[in-house]
Design goal:
Pfam families: HIT. With 169 residues, the chain is an alpha+beta fold. The protein is built from five helices and five strands, in the order H-H-E-E-E-H-E-E-H-H. The radius of gyration is 16 Å and the shape is globular. The protein binds zinc ion (ZN). Zinc ion binds next to helix 2.
Length: 169
């Protein structure tokens, strides 16, 4: 079967899913992308800032499909999930000049998944000597201003006009 990009199907797809799902909830509010720190919407997946970051610039990339495992994704969903992850890596690299990254997926609660029903990739930029960050933010709350600054800094990197090293180019 040929896959057709049919955005009107989104309401139907989402209506069947868990209404309490954090990611599906954000997807249903396109007008509130800035408040929700949704930084990019693709055809099959999207990216947003983690409001409980392990580090400044911590992003999450999730498929639109409400699935809990990589094995449930169709090839085109898998491809875009990782293509957006790569965009995130590039945007973070250019905007924040990190010295490294942690990129990973927690599948299942036992593995540390915070939202275990909806698969998502974490990408955390790392700098030398940043290991105290988690302690710092667990003692104080994440400052909204810091999230807003990160959002404003990164958002331009996800403009459609911007050139990314896409698989298709
Ligand atoms: Zn979901």
């Amino acid at each position: 079967m040929e896959t057709v990009w049919a955005p009107w199907r989104m309401a139907y797809i989402l209506s069947e899913k868990d209404r309490n799902c954090f990611f599906c909830h954000k997807l249903r509010e396109p007008a509130r992308d800035a408040e929700n720190y949704v930084i990019y919407r693709g055809k099959e997946a999207f990216a947003l800032l983690n409001i409980y970051p392990y580090n400044n610039g911590h992003l999450m990339i999730a498929p639109y499909a409400h699935v809990s495992s990589l094995t449930a994704l169709r090839p085109e969903q898998l491809l875009e999930l990782f293509d957006i992850t790569r965009r995130c890596e590039q945007a973070l690299r250019e905007a924040m000049r990190p010295e490294g990254f942690n990129i990973g997926i927690n599948v299942g609660k036992v593995a540390g998944a915070g939202v275990e029903d909806h698969l998502h990739v974490h990408i955390v930029p790392r700098w030398n000597g940043d290991t105290n960050y988690m302690t710092t933010i667990s003692e104080t709350r994440v400052i909204p201003q810091q999230l807003e600054d990160a959002y404003k800094l990164l958002f331009p990197y996800f403009s459609e006009n911007r050139r990314f090293h896409s698989l298709n180019v």
